[in-house]
Amino acid sequence: MSEEQLMLDYIKLLHEKESKQLKTEEKIVLEGQYKEAYNAMMDAYNAELFVGLIGPVGSGKTALCRKFANDLDKPFNWVTFSDLVRPSNLIGSFDPTLVFKYGFSVDAFIPGPFTLSTLGGGVFLANELNRGDEYVLNSLLDALEERKLYIPSLKTWYDVDPEFYLIAAMNPAEMRGTRRLPSAIKDRVKVWIHLDYPKKPIEQQIIQTRCPEYSLNPSTIELVLELVHQTRDDPAVELPASIRSSIGLARLGSERAKRLNKPLDNTTLAQSAKLVLTESIKMKPGRDAKKYVSSLLKRVLGTTG
Amino acid sequence: MSKITKKTVSEISFQNDSVVGWSPITFSIEFVTRLRKIPNISHVPSIRTTLAIPKFLSARYFRMNTLSPRDYIEAAVFNTPYEDQDIAERIAHEILFPRAKKGTKSRKRRNQPQKRIQPGPPQQQTQPQIKSQQQQQSVDPTQMILNDLA
Q1: What pTM value is reported for the model?
Q2: Which of A111, A229, A265, B96 shows the smallest number of beta carbons within 10 Å?
Q3: Torsion angle defined by CA atoms of residues A96, A99, A104 and A108, in that order, rounded to the nearest 10 degrees
């Protein structure tokens, strides 16, 4: 294939795959803690109070936020905070090529997701907010409190749309990579909802919803959940298996059984669990994940695969 | 500043609010005042919290058309940063149910036949904890700092 053809294929591919439908139907089991959190979020939204969701990695915070934003039927933008996120990633910046044409004017300015939400009246998800730098977080303050957004590049203040709404999602402060939130932000995000890993019956429903193509029987899901929940209850595990791990384990096990043309038995499940769990959990210092997973499999499934 | 009387409370309460003696506003003021007095909380509540609690309760009232003590407690807990939510829940309980403080038994429970508590290690563990809490309260903070410096 010539280089020109390859280039054309790329362009064709990009055109074909351009997403026209940004809103996706969020498959979420709105029961138990999720239902309570959703109701509290709805109350907070109606009371014009910004929400902060706190929970461990993979406890369903982002999925709940997406569902909430979808239900509100509003434009939805988000940024996942880290050390590398700067105010320009939130507010926007000049496009150098457009600056040549238009100069430093609004025409050459590309607004960031936060600007789009504040001025367009959308929902903004500040994902992993407590991983962000204080300097960056402070750039949100005016919009949250004064309902005015200052865009330094344009040297102009803008009115924030009354429909603008912010949801912050974050991991508990004791998790690695997180910072203490500045008091100013803490005081402006007013409703704090804690989400933990769901209880077994809810997680069972989540697995069934997320793996519709496999007819998983309840006893298999029970085994998957037993493995995952034991990592959550063990004090030797620093970062336990999340809901994603439960779904991943159920899917990989089912697919493996399908390929081997046999029912999903304990051996197949153990083989899959080794692949999924070993890297998805993090042990406390001095403990070995491989050995831990092997003993867990022996205990729960009676085999290490 | 004039104190809000019982009469004013009943005037500004919602119709289906089953909480006696408190309205969302008076509860919020009392809750924030008490929370501010707690030493070493991660975030001292500001006037924004005082405003947020009645707002939250109003939104819940308009969604559910009723308010219960549980809603008041939830409002207090949700409007407090995560680190202080346990303290917030305790204070909200104490405000709404002043006689049902931790450690005291209601008349109903006192009349019920009590389960026999088996002597064992858990009981032995709880006693020193209570003792140490009492000790902590009685220690002079200045003395504690001086001890640390020494």
Answers
A1: 0.77
A2: A265
A3: -90
